[in-house]
Specification:
2 domains; alpha+beta; 10 strands
Length: 142
């Protein structure tokens, strides 16, 4: 009986170690996630958040099809904006993009969202000039 208890403890320790990163990522996502209502859903019509106006050249993004993002950011602290996108309905990792200043307060960039197994997906993002963050969201359909 004593040997069986030791073997069970070793197996349990190995299982916990194997799944530790997955378990931690679930807890980190739940504790640090923002409500979806805090995001500005992008479309061809501009969406404004914290005096930053964001838009797309299409109302719905398609996987692996380039889509143009246009940002009006008055007094941006950088000539390059960073955009980090994560899937809401499914963990797809983080897609990172850079948007460059085209003229004045306007920034543009082309993004390509990865393929997802779901028919529809919402990508939630953090757009930053290095000093201030805004939170865009993009709807994607197959």
């Amino acid at each position: 009986m004593h040997l069986a208890l030791k073997a069970s403890a070793v197996c349990a320790a190995l299982a916990v170690g194997f799944f530790a990163s997955d378990i931690l990522s679930v807890f980190n996502q739940q504790s640090g996630s923002k409500p979806i209502d805090d995001y500005c859903v992008l479309s061809t019509e501009g969406c404004t958040q914290q005096n930053v106006t964001m838009s797309l050249n299409s109302d719905i993004a398609k996987p692996l099809v380039p889509i143009q993002v246009t940002i009006e950011w008055p007094n941006a602290q950088s000539d390059v904006l960073s955009l980090d996108m994560q899937g809401h309905e499914m963990d797809m990792g983080t897609a990172k993009y850079r948007l460059t200043r085209t003229q004045g307060d306007q920034f543009q960039g082309e993004i390509i969202l990865p393929v997802c197994t779901q028919e529809q997906m919402t990508w939630l993002g953090t757009l930053s000039d290095g000093n201030q963050d805004v939170f865009p969201a993009i709807r994607m359909e197959q």
